[in-house]
Design a protein that fits this description.
alpha+beta; Penicillin-binding protein 2a (Domain 2); Beta-lactamase; 2 domains; five-stranded mixed β-sheet; about 40% helix
Length: about 550
């Protein structure tokens, strides 16, 4: 009996256990199924969120379909070595509609955490106005992911195309700017506006990014040393007019799209019109040689220390200049009176014709629209005299570089260019080859001889020649003590390839700057004795050529 009862109870226990286990399995399966559903939903949401946060911002093709994005598209711009100067990229702008904010205070705290450097005073005001506003444009991938992970319905991303200038200030005066409507307003962005909107392949420039960087660095450094208000430099190939570098300081960052209203931001290389002084003496001598009026060895005797024209005195800058000089020596020693005598032998018509031929009197054609127009004046006996040594006559640094290129390359007409083209242009011969053969050795002596004014540019191995120019700056028609200092160099003079034109706007002396003479003597000199071109623009040029010379010798 007891045994039977035990068996019955045991059976009942087994039955209850199996039933309970079955129920448990059913419940577990239900829970697992529900969990699985939730997991799928969570996984789907997570994948979607990750997709939003990690979208490839480099892809342009995905967003070119709409009319809006097509309107925003502009072709890339590359340098002569295929390095990007300007690039169109996909970017994300973040807008906020406060009406849909879950918790404005919490949103503000989260935004401050993600963007700690941003000023939130105005943002808080905008949040309280309950009107849509743009919070951040061109957001980074990292911050985009963080802000979207907030999950706030008020945050509205907008994918768009944007113009990126990876080198910031480096090419600002060349490239220029675009406005908010994606239209070019200056530089190549303006002059190539239609082409950039239509063209799919990159537009290649003549400039070299590495050389542009080095020249800008040296100009910036010497702006501090000589306390200039600005400076400019142009490096040009004398044989084809390709501009390898064009720098004007101060410059700006095109990425910021700020309105440049300060006249200090003028493109001093192309737009600024200046009296450059004695660099014009090269033109006077070249014109006389071209017309076969004189020879380099032609002697000028009994040159006075000063003369008067129209009641105004014309003097030598250096009283030590001898009263008897050859035409060659007049250029080497930068004689004012001697240059006047050469100009008088030429006469107004022939000097004017020569200057027009080498394109220093009229507006020149270039790939950007920021081009200065030389100031016109009435030619006469006095204007002939002063123009002969570079006084009272204006032009641009770009035109100086071009004119020296024509004189250096055998007399072939070239046009300065920023856009690189495959086809070769037949060059017109506008000067006698004899002009180059006779002028180049003289320009070399300006740098190598004790009587010359540019010994600081005698960089070993590069055969630098050139001419200095120190001119009083005219402000509102009145000459001041402020100066425009320039030096136009040609190298190598035995086989000219490059012209480097450097201009400093209002340089000052520096008593602490140490000069290292480049004539092999290892002589050092402390302090700037005069704020003339020979002590400022020439020194800058020498430093630049030392930096870029190895690159030019290797590449070109």
């Amino acid at each position: 009996m007891n045994k039977k009862k035990f068996e019955i109870e045991d059976t009942e226990f087994k039955f209850d256990f199996n039933k309970s286990q079955s129920n448990l399995n059913i419940k577990f399966n239900r829970i697992a199924f529900i969990f699985f559903i939730f997991f799928l939903v969570f996984l789907t949401f997570s994948i979607h969120l990750i997709h939003l946060g990690s979208r490839n911002l480099k892809s342009i093709k995905k967003i070119q379909g709409s009319a809006f994005t097509k309107k925003l598209y502009r072709a890339d711009i590359i340098d002569r070595n295929n390095k990007f100067v300007v690039k169109t990229v996909s970017s994300i702008n973040i807008g906020i509609n406060p009406v849909h904010a879950i918790d404005k205070k919490k949103l503000l705290i989260n935004l401050k955490y993600i963007f700690p450097k941003k000023n939130f005073t105005e943002i808080e005001k905008k949040l309280n106005k309950d009107k849509f506003f743009w919070f951040e444009k061109k957001i980074s991938d990292e911050k985009y992911e963080k802000i979207m992970n907030l999950g706030d319905k008020s945050i509205i991303p907008n994918e768009t195309l944007t113009r990126l200038y990876p080198h910031r200030n480096l090419f600002s005066h060349i490239i220029g700017q675009i406005d908010e409507d994606n239209n070019g307003i200056s530089g190549l962005e303006k002059s190539l506006d239609i082409e950039l909107k239509k063209k799919k392949n990159p537009i290649k420039l003549t400039v070299d990014t590495d050389i542009q960087y080095l020249i800008r660095e040296e100009l910036s450094r010497f702006n501090e040393i000589f306390k200039t208000i600005g400076s400019a430099a142009i490096l040009m190939n004398v044989n084809d007019g390709e501009v390898i570098s064009l720098v004007s300081l101060p410059d700006f960052d095109p990425n910021e799209r700020k309105k440049i209203t300060d006249t200090n931001f003028i493109n001093r290389a192309t737009k600024g019109v200046y009296e450059f002084g004695s660099v014009f003496k090269t033109f006077t001598l070249a014109a006389a040689l071209d017309k076969k009026i004189i020879k380099p060895e032609t002697k000028f005797i009994d040159l006075p220390k000063s003369l008067t024209c129209g009641g105004f005195p014309i003097r030598e800058y250096d009283n030590k200049i001898p009263s008897s000089l050859t035409a060659e020596q007049i250029l080497i020693r930068s004689g004012n009176i001697g240059s006047v005598r050469i100009g008088q032998k030429l006469g107004v018509d022939r000097l004017k014709s020569f200057l027009s031929k080498i394109d220093v009197l009229e507006e020149t054609n270039f790939d950007i629209e920021e081009i200065g127009i030389p100031i016109q004046f009435n030619w006469g006996k006095c204007s002939l005299a002063t123009s002969s040594f570079g006084h009272g006559i204006t032009t641009t640094l770009l035109q100086l570089a071009r004119a020296y290129s024509v004189i250096a390359n055998g007399g072939y007409n070239i046009s300065p260019k920023l856009i690189r083209k495959a086809e070769k242009v037949n060059k017109e011969k506008i000067l006698s080859s004899e002009v180059s053969k006779k002028i180049l050795p003289i320009l070399r002596k300006v740098v190598t001889t004790k009587e010359g004014t540019a010994s600081l540019a005698n960089v070993s191995g590069y055969e630098v020649g050139g001419k200095t120019g120190t001119a009083q700056k005219s402000i509102a028609g009145i000459y001041t003590k402020k100066k425009i200092n320039s030096f136009v160099s040609v190298f190598p003079t035995s086989n000219p390839k490059f012209v480097l034109a450097v201009m400093l706007d209002e340089p000052k002396t520096n008593e602490n700057y140490i000069y290292h003479f480049r004539d092999g003597s290892n002589i050092k000199y402390k302090g700037t004795p005069y704020n003339t071109a020979g002590w400022t623009a020439v020194e800058v040029t020498g430093q630049i050529i030392e930096k870029i010379g190895p690159i030019l010798a290797t590449k070109y």
